[in-house]
Design brief:
This protein is of the alpha+beta class. The chain has 7 domains: about 80 residues, no CATH class; about 140 residues, Chondroitinase Ac, Chain A, domain 3, CATH 2.60.220; about 140 residues, Immunoglobulin-like; about 100 residues; about 70 residues, no CATH class; about 100 residues, Death Domain, Fas; about 60 residues, no CATH class. The N terminus is likely disordered.
């Protein structure tokens, strides 16, 4: 926060970032002053006792006043621990740039204030007992003082290291006191004192008392992997003897690891790089790339890191070298029996004047100067940096295509890779990208296929990664190379992203695929393409399109002449309405549903049809909603099927328009053509929800901050984008509400 004198544009740092009160309006002479947070004026009105402190501050504020204020709240802070005085207004503590975060809401503490600590237990020696297929996949986090309880739930979050969450079974481990045993809490446990969820590579824990916490993962498949960082450090031991040390550690431990090695007088030889490890023994070796350097006989053989150490600790291995010139050029080789890991190049300036045990700047080895080294060394360094950057690009893209999006990547690569690679259950995105590199389809100087894949997927983060890589490494897109993805595959991909849950059952039934127990539409398409029943052939495309929902079918058929509904169907006009009649019909339809307060229910009905879900949620009238359908090519002068479906589902058969005589009778509608069965069931469920049901679901899924939905339709509009009302999950919610009702009866 910043104290700002509006007449004098000079700003003075006053408040530390851990202070959370809102705007403070006071008089400094005749000059109004305010507080800034993150360069924005804070708008909330909330006075605290800091007013008394700021009252007497001179302008400009001296360092002694700033120091005095910071000591009011923050007792201690570094990368490992933070201690803060928390009052009734609440507080947020965080470590490692919010990697580990503790949120204490207002009125949660018992009493006027309490000293709270948040710690990453880097030196924790009491690791949990693990079975062979288990791993510690998060930092060990300590919230103190131990045993402190609260008036209301508080929230703790920290990262986890598991790759592909569906490949792991998670257990939260809790230790109330340092001398206690670790207690396991399963993801499905229904406890009031501790509850946890997983999302976006983070663990979110809701607690009512302080303990030690960590996350344990049990691998469900053999090739389940977790993320670790490889650090490479070195220092001179004697005149010509050099020690190179490798260390594997959790990403959340990076700053502490660097600090520890710096204190030991070691130079960081390269930025830590992400490694995807399996739970099996790993061999680590060093290969020297310059004849002027030698590796001592004792360090020539690969060193073994056992699976047990990989699962829970930060293993390190030391290699002794004979120093040559000032430029160390080497490769760190890591290998596991069932896991390919790319070599890690190390190109670094070694300071010949470095004394054993002296502390060096951790960035000292990260750069080379043109004035200090020959041009060939600079070229070698540039090549190394490109390889490192390409390695990071593959790792970043594999994270973008994690989870459900891994199916997208498999589908897009169907024409490039063998079916055996695409259907390998132990593969992940990183494995597929490595296979592309092995086949020569991508390289550090050719990322055209990656550019095309990311543009087609429309994953903005992935697009940014490829664009940044090309820009940083001065790589131009080779337009002369023929496109790797066919227009058929791009169109089919876009269509599959729009399918409804019903489409899978339709496809498996039509093509008799039920015996394969397919769990998603992407696997079904992969099976059909492998059998030759789906390909870039008009007849095959039209047969497959018949199994899809309206918008997906329309995308897939493109300009083939097919419509969303058959022209012979009773809902389709034999002749298009005139512009005036169409405008009148839209106006009458909008007026009818607005007068009956059905706008939110219509939003639920159309949510699956329009690409922009947020646009659907924001419209304030039925006419605006119909405009979205027109823009999506689902509603036109001749294509009125969506209006008939709407009347069918909402049972508004008495709808009247001045042009009713020109339309097919609404009461003759037998079944929906565009609205999916899942949406119809969701709509009927929305009508059946009581106010108490809505309140109960709000408390169950928004227990930290209630959203207080005004009706069931608002709840559905919020739940659908969050993936809470898919075909499988809605049944469990219905069962929960039913059990809850029986309990109260």
């Amino acid at each position: 926060m910043v104290w700002v004198d509006k007449k004098n544009p000079i700003s003075h740092n006053v408040c530390c970032q851990y202070y959370t009160p809102a705007t403070l309006q006071k008089k400094n002479g005749n000059t109004p002053v305010s507080l800034l947070k993150n360069n924005r004026w804070i708008e909330e009105q909330k006075k605290t006792k800091i007013l008394n402190f700021l009252e007497d501050l001179p302008s400009p504020v001296s360092d002694q006043f700033q120091t005095q204020f910071e000591k009011l709240k923050v007792e201690k802070q570094n990368d490992q621990i933070m201690e803060v005085i928390v009052e009734s207004a609440g507080e947020t503590l965080h470590l490692n740039d919010e990697d580990i975060k503790l949120e204490i809401p207002s009125e949660a503490i018992k009493g006027e204030k309490v000293k709270v600590s948040l710690e990453n237990c880097f030196e924790e020696t009491e690791f949990p007992v693990l079975h062979p297929h288990e791993s510690i996949i998060s930092p060990i986090v300590k919230c103190g003082p131990e045993g402190t309880s609260f008036n209301k739930p508080i929230s703790l979050s920290f990262p986890h290291d598991a790759v592909n969450e569906q490949n792991w079974e998670f257990t939260l481990l809790v230790k109330d006191h340092i001398e206690d045993e670790w207690k396991p809490i399963a993801l499905t446990d229904d406890r009031k004192d501790v509850h946890f969820t997983l999302s976006n590579d983070r663990c979110y824990v809701t607690i009512n008392h302080f303990s030690l916490f960590t996350l344990k993962g049990l691998r469900k498949i053999f090739r389940a992997k977790k993320k670790m960082l490889l650090g490479v450090f070195g220092k001179m031991l004697a005149k010509d003897e050099y020690q190179l040390q490798t260390r594997l550690f959790k990403p959340s431990d990076e700053k502490m690891i660097e600090k520890k090695h710096q204190e030991d007088g070691e130079q960081m030889l390269r930025q830590p790089i992400e490694i995807l490890c399996m739970s099996e023994d790993m061999e680590i070796a060093v290969e020297i790339l310059d004849q002027k350097w030698k590796i001592q006989e004792v360090s020539k053989e690969p060193q073994i890191v056992t699976a047990e150490y990989l699962r829970r600790t930060r293993p390190s291995k030391t290699f002794l070298l004979i120093r040559g010139n000032s430029l160390l050029k080497a490769k760190v080789l890591l290998s596991q029996k069932s896991n390919r890991i790319d070599p890690v190049p190390v190109f670094c300036v070694v300071d010949s004047k470095q004394n054993p045990g002296s502390s060096k700047d951790k960035n000292e080895g990260a750069s080379l100067s043109n004035q200090c080294h020959p041009s060939e060394d600079n070229n070698t360094m540039a090549d190394s940096e490109t390889l490192n950057s390409f390695r990071d690009l593959k790792a970043g893209l594999s994270r973008c295509f994690d989870g459900e999006r891994y199916h997208w990547l498999r589908f897009l690569l169907f024409d490039q890779l063998d079916v055996g690679d695409l259907t390998n259950k132990d593969f992940n995105g990183h494995d597929l990208l490595n296979t592309l590199e092995d086949k020569g389809l991508i390289s550090s100087t050719n990322v055209n296929l990656l550019l095309e894949i990311t543009n087609t997927s429309e994953i903005q983060k992935a697009k940014n990664l490829v664009s940044k890589y090309m820009r940083d490494n001065n790589i131009q897109n080779r337009h002369t190379i023929r496109t790797k993805l066919s227009s058929y595959r791009k169109r089919l991909f876009k269509a599959l992203k729009q399918v409804h849950p019903d489409a899978l059952s339709n496809v498996t039934a039509y093509y008799e695929l039920k015996k394969y127990n397919l769990s998603n539409i992407w696997d079904a398409v992969l099976k059909l393409e492998n059998k030759g029943e789906l390909a870039d052939d008009l007849d095959k495309i039209e047969r497959f399109a018949g199994c899809l929902g309206g918008i997906a079918r329309n995308i897939l058929l493109g300009n083939s002449g097919k419509e969303i509904a058959s022209s012979s169907h009773q809902c389709e006009q034999s002749e298009a309405l005139s512009n005036d009649d169409f405008k009148q019909l839209i106006a009458d339809f909008a007026k009818w549903f607005d007068e009956r307060g059905l706008l939110n229910s219509l939003k639920v009905l159309f949510l699956e049809m329009v690409d922009d879900i947020e646009a659907v949620k924001k419209v304030t009238s039925t006419s605006d909603l119909l405009v979205l359908l027109i823009n999506s090519d689902l509603l036109s002068r001749k294509r009125l099927v969506v209006l008939y479906d709407t009347i069918k589902v909402t049972e508004q058969f008495d709808f009247q328009s001045s042009i009713t005589k020109k339309l097919s009778p609404f009461k003759n509608i037998k079944k929906c053509k565009v609205v999916s069965l899942h949406t119809v069931n969701l709509f009927d469920w929305g009508k059946s929800l009581s106010d108490s049901n809505v309140k109960s679901l709000d408390e169950q899924y928004n227990f930290l901050v209630l959203k207080e939905y005004p009706d069931s339709w608002s709840l559905i509009l919020d739940f659908v984008p969050r993936g809470l009302l898919s075909e499988d999950k809605i049944e469990s919610i219905k069962k929960m509400l039913k059990d809850e009702k029986q309990y109260w009866v």
